[in-house]
Amino acid sequence: MTGDEPVIRIRGLRNQFGEQVVHENLDLDVRRGEIIGVVGGSGSGKSVLLRSIIGLGHPAAGSIRLFGEEVATMSDAKRGMIERRCGVLFQNGALFSSLTVAENVAVALTEHHDIDPDIVHRLALLKIALAGLPLDAADKFPSQLSGGMVKRAALARSLALDPDILFLDEPTAGLDPIGAAAFDQLILTLRNSLGLTVFLITHDLDTLYTICDRVAVLARKRILVADSLDVVETFDDPWVQDYFQGPRGRAAQRAAATSSASQPQGH
Ligand SMILES: Nc1ncnc2c1ncn2[C@@H]1O[C@H](COP(=O)(O)OP(=O)(O)OP(=O)(O)O)[C@@H](O)[C@H]1O
């Protein structure tokens, strides 16, 4: 792919299940290194979009290019290579309940590589630390962790193969506000330090205002607008206006304004 080509480029995407059309003529670009937040009503097709991008769906029409490669027509070898460059945190975390946190991360490491078990264990501990978990979490089972720790364990697993893109499906859902804010900061830190591109599905307005560079609105089967928040907030559409100018949207705007006003200059 060329330097200025988006890491994800979607054109004319159509997804449907039987008679139900979920996406129609959907276009979206995701730029290298950005955190893009994807919002839309429940059932608008955000998760289906994510699954299509990573090759888990079967679009009826359109083009999805990931790292410059057409997803639908990729060879198996190329698909494996692309999979390694995509870390995915699914909505429910999807950890293996019978494996410890370290073993969950190790599974992801050994899926694609034949590595010495001792090195696998050390790498797993590194990813666990990167996800902000204490090292004693490594030997715990998912059932022994809090909701926030489960998210971090799943994040550690999605970072296992040093991905270029991190796909997060509602990462802060179910977390208390303090846990959610800490998770947002972790994503921001990871993006800044590892240079990740982050595709983030969320209903969390605070997340949008705190860490997203751009926001894409999925409604009426397509992306209505994908731009910085100040542009999206004023976009002339009833759903967008309800979402961003409703009481929760305005509260998130105020919180973001207060927080940026209290930051030292240069932040
Ligand atoms: N495998 C499938 N078979 C049939 N219908 C599906 C399938 N997957 C998703 N759908 C339908 O596609 C629509 C979009 O689902 P999707 O999960 O992408 O919504 P969403 O925007 O992520 O919603 P939420 O915010 O509630 O998670 C829904 O109506 C859903 O029932």
Automatic annotation (TrEMBL):
Matching entries from SMART domains are given as: AAA
So which residues are the signal peptide here? none
Please give the name of this protein: Phospholipid/cholesterol/gamma-HCH transport system ATP-binding protein
Keyword Transport in record: yes
Matching entries from Pfam families are given as:
ABC_tran (PF00005)
The ABC transporter domain sits at 8-245
**What phylogenetic lineage does the species belong to?**
Bacteria, Pseudomonadati, Pseudomonadota, Gammaproteobacteria, Lysobacterales
Q: Which InterPro entries match?
A: AAA+_ATPase (IPR003593), ABC_transporter-like_ATP-bd (IPR003439), P-loop_NTPase (IPR027417)
